[in-house]
Design goal:
Layout lengths: L1 H13 L5 E10 L2 E9 L9 E7 L12 H14 L2 E5 L18 H24 L1 H4 L1 E11 L1 H11 L1 H4 L13 E5 L2 E2 L13 E6 L9 E3 L12 E4 H10 L4 E7 L13 H13 L5 E7 L2
Parallel strand pairs: 3-4, 3-5, 5-6, 6-8, 8-11, 11-12
Antiparallel strand pairs: 1-2, 2-4, 7-10, 9-10
Helix pairs in contact: 3-5
C-alpha cells in the first residue's frame, strides 16, 4: 500500500508542468515579511474570475514554508487540473526557536495567542486577495480555506471563530469563505460554529491522532496538570455540528491512524475538488462519511 501511494505521488508530481506563478507580499509584521504564491491556470482568459484554494502549510507553528514541495504541488494541481487560482501563504512561525515548542510545556495562554496570530495572518492574506481580486482574477464568493496540521488549525479557527480571535472583525467584513479543506485540524471551541458561518468542509483525520484530537480532547493529549493543557474540538465534533446545520461535509476517518493523516491526500484530490464543485459551485447538499482502517 505504501509503495503504491509513493509511486502515485511521483507520477502525480511529474504530471504537473510549470504554472504561471507570481509572488506577492501581503503584510510586513516586525521582522516577518509575509508572502503568498499565486498559481494561475495557463489558459486563463482576461475575463475569467476563478474559485480559489487559499492554503496554509503545517509544521507546528515552528517549521514549514509556503513552497514546501507538497504544499506547492497542491496549489499547482488546483490551478492546472481544477481551473482554480491556487495560493500558498507564509505566516509567522511563532513557536520557532522557543524552548517549549507547541507541546505540553507551552502554556495555554501561549497556545491561544499562537492560534490568534495565525488566524490574523490568514485573515490578512484573505483580505489581500479580496482587495486585489481583479488583478488576481478571483471569484471572492468562492474562496476555499485549506490547511494541514497547524495550518488546518489556523484556517478552521479563521473560518469558524473569527469573532473570537480577531478584535477588529469589521476590517475583514468583505472576506467570505465558501468552504474548508482540513487535514488533521481542530478548533478551540466548536460552539462558535453556527448556521451563519457553517460552510461545506472536507475533513481528514485519524482516530488516534496523538497531536490534534480527533474528537473533544486535550491538545497533544497533555495531562491537566501540564501548562499546555487545553481542550480542542477536532474533526468529529466539527462534522457533527455541520450535520446538525444540514451543511455539506466529506469526512474521511482513518481508524487507528495517528497524525500522519495530516499529509495532503494527493491520491484523492479528484474526490475533494468534486465535492467542492458540487457543494460550493453547484450548491448541492452532500453529507458523506468514509471510514477506513489503517493498514
Amino acid at each position: 500500500m505504501k509503495l503504491t501511494i509513493n509511486i502515485y505521488i511521483i507520477l502525480f508530481v511529474l504530471s504537473l508542468s510549470a504554472q504561471n506563478k507570481t509572488t506577492y507580499t501581503y503584510s510586513i509584521k516586525g521582522k516577518d515579511t509575509l508572502k503568498l504564491d499565486v498559481y494561475t491556470p495557463k489558459n486563463i482568459k482576461k475575463t475569467d474570475k476563478l474559485p480559489v484554494l487559499l492554503w496554509m502549510h503545517g509544521g507546528g507553528f515552528s517549521v514549514g514554508h509556503r513552497d514546501y514541495i507538497d504544499d506547492e504541488n497542491l496549489v499547482k494541481y488546483a490551478a492546472k487540473e481544477q481551473n482554480y487560482i491556487g495560493i500558498s501563504i507564509s505566516y509567522r512561525l511563532l513557536r520557532k526557536g522557543t524552548k517549549t515548542g507547541f507541546g505540553c510545556d507551552c502554556t495555554k495562554d501561549e497556545k491561544l495567542e499562537t492560534f490568534k496570530q495565525a488566524v490574523i495572518d490568514y485573515m490578512d492574506a484573505a483580505k489581500y486577495i479580496v482587495e486585489h481580486a481583479n488583478e488576481l482574477q478571483i471569484d471572492t464568493t468562492k474562496i476555499i480555506a485549506g490547511g494541514s496540521s497547524a495550518g488546518a488549525e489556523g484556517i478552521l479557527n479563521a473560518v469558524f471563530m473569527r469573532e473570537y480571535f480577531v478584535d477588529n472583525a469589521e476590517d475583514y467584513s468583505k472576506v467570505k469563505f465558501a468552504g474548508a479543506f482540513s487535514c488533521a485540524g481542530a478548533v478551540v471551541d466548536a460552539s462558535y460554529i453556527t448556521p451563519n458561518n457553517a460552510v461545506p468542509a472536507v475533513l481528514y483525520h485519524g482516530t488516534k491522532d496523538q497531536l490534534v484530537p480527533f474528537g473533544n480532547a486535550p491538545h497533544h493529549y497533555c495531562e491537566p496538570t501540564k501548562d499546555g493543557y487545553i481542550m480542542l474540538d477536532g474533526s468529529k465534533i466539527i462534522a457533527e455540528k455541520l450535520e446538525d446545520f444540514e451543511t455539506s461535509y466529506y469526512f474521511n476517518i482513518v481508524k487507528d491512524a495517528r497524525h500522519e493523516i495530516s499529509r495532503i491526500p494527493f491520491e484523492e484530490l479528484d474526490i475533494v475538488f468534486n465535492f467542492f464543485k458540487r457543494t460550493v459551485l453547484n450548491d448541492e447538499v452532500i453529507q458523506t462519511k468514509i471510514i477506513k482502517t489503517k493498514k
